[in-house]
Write a structure and sequence with these properties.
Elements lengths: L1 H52 L6 H5 L3 H17 L2 H13 L2 H8 L5 H13 L6 H6 L6 H14 L5 H8 L7 H10 L5 H6 L6 H14 L5 H10 L3 H14 L5 H6 L7 H14 L5 H6 L6 H14 L1 H8 L4 H18 L4
């Protein structure tokens, strides 16, 4: 029995020693590979920095001529650099990537079985801002892996082609949609040319889609859609959508938003909507709204009175004067905050 125990112990010790040796060998190989990659990447990295320092005017031929193994070692650094560049330097480095066939390779990898490769390829195409890739990236918006969909949306935002707007909007109407904030940010990146599509999507049956489009229209400064947004504020059946419409009108800052927001303050409206409308009037900054907001300082709904007070603070001297004449606790709070912010701006220590 003791002999059997000794044999088992020796086997276990051999397994442990073999495992430890294997771990050491793997680490040594990894470090050796990292040192080799660092040596290979050193030259290309110097060339990349010189190319960028020269604003992309000289050195593109040298970058294209770099051997493939050295370029592969330096490519992560080159891509990270590409994301930070703008203007001529960005265009010059994009040209280098195109001439080296990076875009062609990435387009092919969009069809890879590996979700990691699909996502990586989508990110590269977005960094290259390659408009020819938009149809293929839009196809990834229905990918079964949410990580791939998220990267595809971000890539479409980097490219900024308004033709992708409908497909991004459609990606919101799924059982596993892309995140709303990401979709909003991307739709804004598509620029003013996406306004027509976003305005048309306010008729979409999905409330979530309408709310995202309203947020995007507000952030875009889509003043041409004021009347359409005002109709949503008045008529939409979902409270969250109407709140988003109020916020959008406040961001747009046009006089055409004043009347719809004032109507939304009526006592028959839900308190959450009235609070959103009060806040939007503050964002609007219209001094003509001061009497309406002043009347709300004693409103029975806490959030309505609170937002009205801070809206008056945002409006400026006329609003502050109205707050000073009120003994509402909300007015006192808003005045105290205004004083603190003024002292900070003036550099007075707390």
């Amino acid at each position: 029995m003791q002999a059997l125990f000794t044999i088992v112990l020796e086997i276990l010790l051999a397994i442990v020693a073999g495992t430890a040796l294997g771990i050491v060998l793997v680490r040594l190989l990894r470090r050796s590979r990292q040192r080799r990659q660092a040596r290979l990447a050193a030259g290309p990295r110097r060339s990349l920095l010189a190319f960028v320092a020269d604003n992309g005017e000289e050195g593109s031929h040298d970058l294209v001529a770099i051997p493939e193994d050295a370029w592969r070692a330096a490519e992560p650094h080159a891509l990270a650099l590409l994301r930070k560049l703008r203007g001529e330097a960005h265009l010059g480095l994009v040209s280098v990537f195109l001439r080296r066939g990076t875009a062609r390779t990435a387009l092919g990898q969009l069809h890879s079985r590996s979700p990691v490769r699909r996502a990586r390829a989508a990110q590269v195409l977005g960094d290259l801002e390659l408009r020819q890739a938009v149809p293929e990236l839009c196809r990834l918006l229905t990918d079964r892996h949410d990580e791939v969909r998220v990267v595809a949306v971000r890539a479409l935002g980097r490219i900024g082609d308004p033709a992708a707007a409908w497909r991004i909007i459609a990606a919101l109407d799924r059982s596993d949609p892309v995140p709303s904030l990401l979709a909003t940010h991307t739709l804004v990146q598509l620029g003013p040319e996406a306004e027509v599509t976003l305005s048309a999507a306010l008729d979409h049956p999905q409330a979530r889609v309408r709310a995202v489009c309203l947020d995007a229209l507000g952030l875009l400064g889509a003043t041409g859609s004021v009347h359409r947004i005002a109709r949503v504020l008045k008529e939409d059946t979902h409270l969250d959508v109407r709140i988003a419409a109020a916020a959008a009108l406040g961001r747009l800052g046009t006089r055409g938003a004043l009347d719809p927001l004032t109507l939304a303050l009526h006592s028959s409206r839900p308190p959450a909507l009235r609070a959103a409308a009060a806040k939007a009037l503050g964002d609007l900054g219209a001094t003509s709204a001061v009497p309406t907001l002043t009347a709300l300082l004693t409103d029975d709904a806490f959030h309505v009175a609170h937002e009205a007070a801070h809206a008056l603070r945002h409006i400026g001297p006329e609003g502050l004067a109205a707050l000073q004449e009120s003994d509402s606790p909300h007015a006192l709070e808003a005045l105290a905050l205004a004083e603190v912010l003024t002292e900070r701006k003036a550099g007075v220590p707390a």
